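Annotated sample (chain length 342).
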Amino acid sequence: MTPPTNDRHRDDPERDAAKPPVVVVTGPTGSGKSSLAIELAERFGGEIVNADSMQVFRYMDIGTAKPSLEERARVPHHLFDVANPDEPYSAGRYAKEARAAAASIHERHRPVFLTGGTGLYIRAFLDGLIETGRVDPGLRARLENEQQKAAEEGDPTRLHRRLAGLDAEAAARIHPNDVRRTVRALEILAQSGERASSVRRAHGFRDRPFRGLHLAIDPGRERLIERIDRRAEQMIEAGLLREVRHLRELGYGPELRPMQAIGYRHIQPVVDGADTLINALEAIKVDTRRFARRQRTWLRPLPDVHWHDPERPETIFEQVGDFLVGRDVDPREERKGSPSSA
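Output written by the structure step:
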């Protein structure tokens, strides 16, 4: 039996045309996607649904580059500040809540602009998730503890090598430093007895209720580095240290997953008096650049992404306008314009 395809271009065009439209505005961190999404939503009467895994958390505004209250007042924003930092928030929960928000927007006959840089959340929203039964917290904790111990012993890719021995196909799709996906693949194998790659093929990501236009915003390597560095400086100037201190005062410790995100983990030693803001700022810049490279790596091979320079917004507005009235552009014609690594 031929496994189901994962190529959106082979879907039934007539069936897809009847689906409600979603414009995805993504790209590497610091590329300007949030401000562009607001402009698009204003121009086309749409609403924004967050697709950033950190911006769902309350009290974490500066370090997540969350849109300001003034920006959020310009157009309706959804799925910001919906969980506390110590509250588990999964891709499954995100997909359910984001799709509910999108359904409500479509009921008002307005387009959805899904905006953010978390690839897993975007994929969960557009394509659905692989269901493998209830997550075993004990199993996950054991795997995460083993990973932490391996990292402390100077062997951070130990679990990934184990996965490669059990499911080479799944391991090839996961970066050796991507602990979360490595752990998830090992969970699937332990819980279902099936390889994650086999489960993935069987699923086929056929749960696609939307007609999507996938935009990737990228100003190019040098300009992106400049924007990343400047934004890091602006976060410090805006009071990132004060924000982390406030989070700690509220009882949110440095061991929490959101508090280990870029920016927050770098400021923890400063709060504790073990480092300086100058050192933290430089580390934030370096790690943010690396994160931007990983985001590009995830986006680059996708077959349906349209790459755009944020400094040429009229081209983007034209394409979105065409999409919303049913005129689509083949992104394969634009592949030569996709960026090189940052």
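Annotation: The chain has three domains: 20-131+208-221+301-337, 137-202, 223-292.
Annotation: Residues 20-131+208-221+301-337 form a domain with the Rossmann fold fold (CATH 3.40.50.300).
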